[in-house]
Amino acid sequence: MKLYIYHLHQDDPKKCTAIKLYKFKLVRLVKNPKLIPKFAIVLNPYANEILIPLDKKLIEDNGLIAIDCSWNKIHEAFKKHFKGINKRLPFLLAANPVNYGKLGKLSSAEALASALYIVNYKKEAEKILSLFKWGETFLTLNKNPLEDYSKAKCEEEILKLEKEYFGEISLTNNI
What we know:
Blueprint: E1 3-7, H1 17-23, E2 28-30, E3 41-43, H2 56-62, E4 64-68, H3 74-77, E5 85-87, H4 108-118, H5 122-129, H6 135-141, H7 143-149, H8 155-166, H9 171-174
Helix pairs in contact: 4-5
């Protein structure tokens, strides 16, 4: 499976989860957005479509990409359209030290692991998170939503689950 990160170099390299994943050879870094694979799933918090378990085949065939940028510059980073199939993750709580407990403010490692978990690559998700002291906390915090999201058959089910777990919240208002 091909995991990519388009790295924008906006964060402290010592805290950057993308760089750590790259050092452990779990992801490939993409330095030019034109090199994003055409049919890869791009994790985009502003996308209209939601990642669902049925996206597994697309990820297997074309890869999964996270855009690594600072949450303080998120609007700038996502003003441009990224090549690929843009999908947002269902709502989850961050466990990383910078955004602990904040809805949707996931690190690149949390985002990739969440996507993998949802499409039932749970061991791969756990491997990514095992590199971080807070990785197990992320799985514990989001245990029930992740399990339920991984069983959903369609976007409507995910939307219903989001409401059950997190109420009526708009992620774009939260970012």
